[in-house]
Specification:
This protein is of the alpha+beta class. The protein has one domain: Orthogonal Bundle (Cytochrome p450), CATH 1.10.630.10. Helix content is 48%, strand content 10%. It has a five-stranded mixed beta sheet with strand order 1-2-8-5-3. The chain has a three-stranded antiparallel beta sheet with strand order 4-12-9. A hairpin with a 6-residue loop joins β1 and β2. It is globular, with a radius of gyration of 21 Å. The protein binds protoporphyrin IX containing FE (HEM). Protoporphyrin IX containing FE binds next to α12, α13 and α17.
Length: 395
């Protein structure tokens, strides 16, 4: 499915699977912001617009009437299963009740409850890798944190997180080979059905038990919808956070001054984390145009698709001083890595805990590490960005 024809003009033929974009999208986004600022490609779907300026992306995110999230996974390319996954694929008024049902499990207070388990998991993992000479920070470390954290919140043993990770990997491979995607779906549905049946028989106060008991606005949730809500948490929460943790560590492996400063001043970690979120924002999302509208100097028609490039908006010099630099003490930092408006990331509090604990544990156990000379750092392709391999030497 991946088409890596050469790109002559990024403004009219952009491709987020092209190796130049995958390796280093920042100069491309800078060029597009200066030249267009809304680019277009005919490579995917019936064509996809790409707004790249902070101002345009934020305005679109707030206008849910003109820009609908109510498409199905087909818009997003091969790796996302078909059909709607509530609440991310719902528009008002259907969106709010579903979001409200999930919200109690994602408040800062509720998250604080999970923090010790996430900290212990990161600590154990970092400790287990610390005496090696070489580690792949993306594969050996970052990859094993988000899925375990979600498992704990769902009321499932952290070790099952590895199964979740495998499903996400199959979905990603599904971009190239549809049987992988079908294989993931064929395992996910019965697995979550079993979990739901179990919570019905044995009420519990974990997220699945809560949704089974409370429903949406007091109405029971049908099993398919409930499974879709749970699967969304995996799709939205695993590779996204993996990408962020991996990119933050990649930066620290290549920038000794920042790394040493964070080791010496751990109180800077929350500010540094926000800067990593801005600099290496990992997620772009799709919208469908509902009525003829103008963005920048282009006119979009009903049915047109656009990709909300939150990561490009985060690098807009109109919104951030020295936007192309990673400043670990940057303040204020009004990044949009978690989106904004009604679909703003439901899991942002969880993601922040995971990223902060992952970085704190790694820097504590392994204060000295650097990219292995000659090592190839590889990155995910497409609408989700993050390193897939970051080989480092330790000590
Ligand atoms: C660094 C990690 C993460 C990033 C960068 C990120 C980014 C985003 C973005 C940009 C959106 C907006 C979607 C839109 O506008 O269409 C979003 C929505 C969402 N995220 Fe995250 N996310 C992260 C981690 C998580 C985690 C850990 C979870 C939960 C386990 C999660 C669950 C969700 C959900 C459920 C939505 C949909 C909210 C709604 O439609 O109301 N995310 N995320």
């Amino acid at each position: 499915m991946t088409d890596i024809r050469d790109v002559d003009d990024w403004a009219t033929d952009w491709d987020h699977h092209h190796p130049d974009w995958v390796d280093d999208p920042f100069p491309i986004w800078d060029e597009l912001r200066n030249r267009c600022p809304v680019a277009h490609t005919n490579r995917y779907n019936e064509g996809v617009w790409l707004p790249t300026r902070y101002e345009d992306v934020t305005a679109i995110a707030h206008d849910t009437t003109t820009f609908s999230s109510g498409h199905d996974g087909a818009t997003a390319g091969g790796s996302v299963p078909r059909g709607k996954f509530p609440p991310i694929h719902l528009d008002p008024p259907d969106h709010l009740p579903v979001r409200r049902a999930l919200l109690p499990f994602f408040t800062p207070r509720r998250m604080a409850q999970w923090e010790p388990a996430i900290r212990a998991h990161c600590d154990e993992l970092a400790r287990s890798l610390a005496d090696r000479d070489e580690v792949d920070l993306a594969r050996d470390y970052a990859a094993h944190i988000p899925a375990a954290a979600i498992a704990v919140i769902l009321g499932i043993p952290a070790s099952v997180g590895e199964k979740f990770r495998t499903w996400m990997h199959w979905l990603e491979l599904g971009d190239l080979e549809v049987t992988h995607r079908d294989r993931a779906l064929a395992e996910m549905w019965p697995y979550f059905q079993e979990q739901i049946d179990d919570r019905r028989a044995n009420p519990s106060d974990d997220l699945i038990g809560h949704l089974v008991a409370e429903g949406i606005d007091g109405e029971p949730i049908d099993d398919d919808t409930l499974i879709r809500m749970l699967v969304l948490l995996l799709i939205a929460g695993i590779d996204t956070t993996w990408g962020l943790i991996g990119a933050s560590l990649w930066h620290l492996a290549g920038n000794a001054d920042d790394r040493r400063r964070l080791v010496a001043e751990p109180e800077l970690l929350p500010t540094a984390m926000e800067e990593f979120l801005r600099s290496f924002a990992s997620v772009s999302l799709y919208r469908k145009v509902t009525t003829t509208t103008t963005v920048g100097d282009v006119t979009m028609e009903p049915g047109d698709t656009l990709l909300m490039a939150f990561p490009a908006a985060c690098r807009d010099p109109e919104a951030f001083d020295r936007a192309d630099e990673v400043l670990i003490d940057r303040q204020p930092n009004r990044h949009v890595a978690f989106g904004l408006g009604i679909h703003r990331c439901l899991g942002s509090n969880l993601a922040r805990i995971e990223i902060e604990q992952a970085l704190a544990a790694w820097l504590h156990h392994v204060p000295e590490f650097e990219l292995r000379p000659g090592a190839e750092v590889t990155w995910a392709e497409g609408a989700l960005r993050g390193p897939r391999s970051v080989p480092v030497t330790i000590g």
